[in-house]
Amino acid sequence: MDLSFLQVVLWLIAGLVSFYFSIGNARVWTSISVGFFLILFGELLPHALPFLPGTGVPQVEAMGYIIGTISILVMSHGFQEYYVFSRTLELEGNKVYVYLTTLGVVGASLVFILINPEPSEETLRAIRIVGNTNWVFLSLINIDLIRKIYLNVKDSPISKGFLAFMIVFICIFLWKGSELYIQVYSLDLPSVMDAFPLRYQISQVTSMIGNLFASLSVGGTFLYLAKLLR
């Protein structure tokens, strides 16, 4: 099986599991699960274009990268909300607002892409670098935030679920961090690749392994939490 296709299949499963989890559980989980669900589109659109309508359309590829960035912002907001909830047991808002706000941000991003010139290769590369930068630094922040949440809920049945989320973000850090390293140092350009083949290969393998384990750990974590919250 082609590895890129396997990654899409795994994120499809992880995305559907996380979205189903958002529907069946309390409001405090909504942003977290919706954020992980959006990774499905962030991975499908850029990496599985041969299987989708719009093959080779730069706007479609750009939207995939942008949705990927939106996903880390949404889930990070969700973990911030859960941290406040774990300290105060107070929660504001409605689940519907989370869905509508997320759709609104995605829609606004689509309009932005459509009213601007067709993204060039340089533009797509810049979008990817911005997105991966967000992923790398917010993953580190989320690991620390989840650690604090765990300390607040360590006596509850769901505490181990947050330890699993820490593993998820470690995998994501390896995945996105390796991609960012390749992009910043242009290791994917033939001339640079030939000069530093080992660095490129190690980064590629690390990114691939991080991606696979991230998708597996996301799906596994939400299934585990669903069992605990049943």
Keywords:
0% strand, mainly alpha, single chain
Task: Describe it.
There is one protein chain. Helices cover 83% and strands 0% of the residues. The chain is an all-alpha fold and 230 residues long. The protein has a single domain, classed as Rhodopsin 7-helix transmembrane proteins (Rhopdopsin 7-helix transmembrane proteins, Up-down Bundle). Helix 5 runs antiparallel to helix 6. It starts with a helix and ends with a helix. The model has no long low-confidence stretch (mean pLDDT 90).
User: What is the highest CATH level, the class?
Assistant: Mainly Alpha
Low-confidence stretches: none
Gross morphology is globular
Distance between the termini: 35 Å
β-strand percent reads under 5%
Which percent bin holds the helix content? Answer: over 70%
CATH architecture: Up-down Bundle
Number of individual domains: 1
CATH superfamily: Rhodopsin 7-helix transmembrane proteins
Integer-rounded radius of gyration: 18 Å
SSE class: mainly alpha
CATH topology: Rhopdopsin 7-helix transmembrane proteins
Characterize the biggest β-sheet: none
**Order of secondary-structure elements:** HHHHHHHH
